[in-house]
Amino acid sequence: MTEAKIIAVLGATGSQGGGLVRAIQGDPKGGFRARALTRNVESEKARALAELGAEVVAVDVDDPASLERAFDGAYGAYCVTFYWEHFSPEKEKAQVRAMAEAAKTAGLQHVVWSTLEDTRDWMSIDDERMPTLMEKYKVPHFDAKGESNAIFTELSVPTTFLHTSFYWDNLIFFGMGPQRGEDGKLAFNLPMGDQKLPGIAAEDIGRCAYGIFKSGDEMIGKSVGIAGEFLSGAEMAATLTSAYGEDVVYNAVPFDVYRGLGFPGADDLGNMFQFKHDFQEDFLGRRDLELSRKLNPDLQTFATWVAANKDRIPSGG
Ligand SMILES: NC(=O)c1ccc[n+]([C@@H]2O[C@H](COP(=O)([O-])OP(=O)(O)OC[C@H]3O[C@@H](n4cnc5c(N)ncnc54)[C@H](OP(=O)(O)O)[C@@H]3O)[C@@H](O)[C@H]2O)c1
Asked: Could you tell which of 16, 82, 269 is best to mutate to test the pocket of ligand 1, judged by most ligand atoms within 8 Å of the CB?
């Protein structure tokens, strides 16, 4: 019997990495085994992954030696960064470099890097349609990831560049669920005008990544964009209306209003939505629904995701 190929998974206790570990361990005959990487091997989430049969190994992406140990002997790795833990594009780029260098040292045969667009390829830094943030970024949490793609190429790491989409789970965890207004009605607030937002169930990102690993060399060196569906705010509100059995009205929040909401990262996210809105054709064009379903035949639609999760979405009381 051939030995299972080890995929070292960063962010294994989180959304993207967790989906990948569950996909690998859910397919015992697939020829792969997950090495779940976490800062805390004793946490409840880490133990749950061990119970699925994953090897659980300690890592801190700020400690390059721990990354080298974590990747040692593996066939491949899933690399994802954690922007919202520190809000620093410079830190994100340093962490990607450490990941790519460890992948090179370990001689990994396939890395899937979870990236996003460098929006400065569409807008120069002095473009006035949206503010420049931190002196050199338009959408810091996108730009730092896109800029980091070059690190994998520069180090000749065999990499698939996975372009992800907005998690529908943000309705549960990021306060983006419908809010009840003073008029007693539920409003779904989103700054997307009448344009479509590519979205995905976070769990499906890892499942698509598993499809990429299973495809062997086919997607190495390529950019792959995934989404579950492309939907306008009005279409998402209509799905929420059917699921709740109560009217949910779409409210197209102006970009400037969103940027000014005052929570950490509001300006970054306001610019992100405006980028997706203003460059709709390119942004959608870089994500392939058919390929996403081919990589992950169980890909959820927004309606199936809402039906399974509506009780978890806080609806503002
Ligand atoms: N929300 C969205 O719509 C969306 C869409 C596309 C892309 N993204 C991107 O997704 C990324 C986050 O991925 P995610 O949502 O899967 O993350 P997540 O669910 O927040 O989980 C991140 C995991 O990473 C681990 N971690 C944090 N810091 C670490 C460190 N220094 N060393 C090692 N592990 C560390 C933590 O695990 P332990 O505590 O167990 O170590 C945590 O469980 C962000 O960069 C974001 O920009 C988000």
From this structure: 82
pLDDT tens digits for range 65-102: 999 999 999 999 999 999 999 999 999 999 999 999 99
CA atoms in the 13 A half-sphere facing the CB of 142: 27
CA of 17 to the centre of ligand 1 (A): 8
pLDDT tens profile 155-191: 999 999 999 999 999 999 998 999 999 999 999 999 9
Going by C-alpha positions, the residue among 106, 180, 117 that lies closest to residue 148 is 117
pTM, to two decimals = 0.98
Q: Where are the beta strands (DSSP E) in 46-130?
A: 55-58, 76-79, 110-115
- Between the CA of 84 and the centroid of ligand 1 the distance, in Å, is 8
Atom of ligand 1 nearest to the CA of 62: 31
